[in-house]
Amino acid sequence: MAVGYPARASATLVGVSDELPSSLVGTGDTLTDAGRDALQAIISDPARTLITLDFDGTIAPIVADPEHAHADPDAVDALARLGDLVLGIVVITGRPARTAVRLGGFDRHAGLDRMVVLGQYGAERWDAHGDRFGAEPEPEAISEVEAELPGLLAGLGLSGARIEHKGRAIGVHTRELPDPGEAFDALRPALDDLARRHQLKLEPGKFVLEIRADGSDKGDAVRHIVAETGARQVIFIGDDLGDLPAFDAVRDLREHGTPGLLICSASHEEDALTIHADLVAAGPRGVAAWLGALADQLAAQ
Ligand SMILES: O=P(O)(O)OC[C@H]1O[C@H](O[C@H]2O[C@H](CO)[C@@H](O)[C@H](O)[C@H]2O)[C@H](O)[C@@H](O)[C@@H]1O
């Protein structure tokens, strides 16, 4: 199974406990102490465990066109099986909430009828129960940024960059340009300046630079949903820079007595999360396998 990537420099690695199934801890000694404690708490008390996770690069494989980034069906099936076994499942994403619901097919699975999607870093919320949607007001400055963007891109010779309009945010993608890394580096200072001039912030990701309101981040979203649900244990799975605040939030919750398990969906494009993770999965396929193993374990209990 695709879990148990190479050891992280600063993570404390422990021997895998006999009490924990190897399908959940990987094949090597790759689980941290805190991760082992959290996993034990999760397995002994699933009904008060909250599963929070990112969308792109975590349950949806990275593809060139964001409109074609569908969730891995095995991951969605595993989440649907977990839906009745745990306290809740919450997707926390940079995508608009409704986009994630559509690309994930989350409104078409019986087991996901209590799922919550927190979109645009927590500024939007979709509840599967009742198909309810709510959002903060959109920042007016986004339309001004939108108007300036074509001229800025043309000035840098990067008119071919893909622009993703997200309502309250705008993403500029370099993945499909001839040299995505070089284009990303050239664009970053210009977009940072553009964002600042409009009192917005720049959110970097995998070959994407996003201009959005300087509001909530995924850490705020995790803290809020844990408090709202009264979760006793929390899992967060992510892959990209925008997930770091959620990792920080889980570590903070841990320090205050709430066991938390941090899983990184690894890729060759971004390794910022691996040293902070308790467990590293081999990309979305590894995450799907791990979620499936957790569903098997909890269903068998
Ligand atoms: O918070 P997330 O769910 O991880 O969303 C972060 C950004 O993901 C998307 O971009 C990434 O995935 C695309 C599709 O695979 C890929 O083409 C792109 O290169 C990646 O950066 C999404 O398009 C952004 O809006 C999200 O903010």
TrEMBL record:
Keyword Cell wall biogenesis/degradation: no
E.C. designation(s): 3.1.3.12
Cofactors demanded by this protein: Mg(2+)
Reactions catalysed according to its record: alpha,alpha-trehalose 6-phosphate + H2O = alpha,alpha-trehalose + phosphate
Coiled coil location: none
Pfam families: Trehalose_PPase
Any one GO molecular function term: metal ion binding
Keywords, in A-Z order: Hydrolase, Magnesium, Metal-binding
Domain of life: Bacteria
An example Gene Ontology biological process: trehalose biosynthetic process
InterPro entries registered for this protein in UniProt: HAD-like_sf, HAD_sf, OTSB-like, Trehalose_PPase
Pathway(s) it belongs to: Glycan biosynthesis; trehalose biosynthesis
Function: Removes the phosphate from trehalose 6-phosphate to produce free trehalose.
Family per similarity comment: Belongs to the trehalose phosphatase family.
NCBIfam families: T6PP
Protein name per the record: Trehalose 6-phosphate phosphatase
